[in-house]
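user: can you give me the structure for this one chain? tokens are fine.
assistant: on it. calling the predictor now.
[tool input]
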Amino acid sequence: MKSLIVQENNLKSNIKIIKQLINKNNEKNVKIIAVVKGNGYGLGLINYTKFLIDNGIDFFAVSTIEEAIKLRKSGISKKILMLSSTSVESEIIELIENNIILTVGTEEAGNKIQEIAKEKNTQVKVHLKIDTGFGRHGFLYTEPEKIVENVKKWTNIKIEGTFSHFSLSFYK
């Protein structure tokens, strides 16, 4: 039987080392985003997130709307990034209402978010998802002009960051 064992002291130490490396390089605007999707990778979404908060992490990423809302309902007020892009109106509205940072990975999703944000007279914070060759959704890195063209027309969208997936799932 397989099991995952996480040594809390080791995790605390790893967080401390990462923060020291960031500070050593005077990277003042660098944020550590802890990915807590999949029920905190089996560690328990709420407990794991609270443990990370207690150890200085203040930005989280999830892959489902249910996870994002569960964190908010449990009292987590830190930044939460929804890693999956959506163009479903009801989902976008729920994410906006719960102060979740959205991901835009398609023109359709960006246009829908723009439409809703304009109707609500608000700025919606997003991260752009760029597909660098792995084929797991996102704007194609080979089409930068198209990305810029879209970004320019989204006046109610504030882009706070970008992310990608490694272009290969293995290392030789």
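assistant: here you go. The longest helix spans residues 8-24. The first strand starts at residue 34 and ends at 35.
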